[in-house]
């Protein structure tokens, strides 16, 4: 039995059908509502990376600059009535770095 099959069996034996259904609805609702905002964020990350790469910034310096940009943004941008804590930027940091690295190595035609 594969690790995934074991994990699936564990979940099935401990999580009720109703709880699974609630999870399904919540997961797909979150994915649907946030896909547009994630696309906008990725585009913004790519724009920043392209500027850094065009300035002959190396990969390590680019990653550090992008992390700093994200943290600085969390400190300076506070829209009125924004209920999202600044700490949520840390949740997105890994994804921002992955996008940044992929964009950095994308060849342009």
General description of the model:
The protein is mainly α. Helix content is 78%, strand content 0%. The protein contains four helices and no strands. Helix 2 (17-54) packs across helix 4 (88-104) and helix 3 (59-76) packs antiparallel against helix 4 (88-104). It starts with a helix and ends in a 5-residue tail after the last helix. The model has no long low-confidence stretch (mean pLDDT 84).
Coarse shape: extended
Q: What's the pLDDT, averaged over the residues?
A: 84
Helical percentage: over 70%
> What number of structural domains do the residues give?
1
Q: What is the percentage of strand-forming residues? A: under 5%
Q: Biggest sheet, open or closed, and with what strands and sense? A: none
Terminal Cα span:
46 Å
Q: In DSSP terms, counting alpha (H) and pi (I) runs of 4 or more, how many helices?
A: 4
By DSSP, the count of extended strands is 0
- The quaternary state of the protein chains shown equals single chain
Pairing-aware structural class of the strands and helices?
A: mainly alpha
Q: Which blocks of ≥5 consecutive residues have pLDDT under 50?
A: none
Radius of gyration: 19 Å
What is the element string, with H for helices and E for strands?
HHHH
Could you give a short description of this structure?
The protein is 78% helix and 0% strand. It is mostly helical.
